[in-house]
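Whether sequence alone determines local backbone shape is best considered at the level of individual chains. In the encoding step, the backbone of a single protein was reduced to a row of integers, each denoting a local shape. For completeness, the protein is quoted in full, as a sequence line and a line of structure tokens.
***
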Amino acid sequence: MAPPITNEIASLSPAAMKPAAMGAWTARYAKLVAVVLAYGATVHVGNIFGLTGTPWLSTPLLWRCMDIALLIFNITAAIALWRGWSWSVWFVFGGIMLLQFVPYTLLRSHFILKPEDAQTLNGLLGTEAILLAVFLVLLWMKK
């Protein structure tokens, strides 16, 4: 016999997934970050379709794998942040750390084919660090 349905299922509703600690300013900032991530997803789609200058199949395999992984991450994170789901903030922090900071620092030489690629990576990592720092400050201040 199946166990009776409990309130655990009700806790999966979108209303229950709203973070209690996310204040008005943090919620607005989460939507801004969602827009930035959606833009990032369009960049990866452009890369995949060869619209950004380099044919996708002529790029290194690692780049192509990262394009796919970051496209999936950006879409998922953007939707989750926009909806205000409680796990979305930590998903963004973990995803940016694992999918950008780790590969772009530990595997840096694999992502630099031209001298200007190093500046691009530095700018990307700097931007991501600022986005996460602002998120941390807003969460800490409970704004």
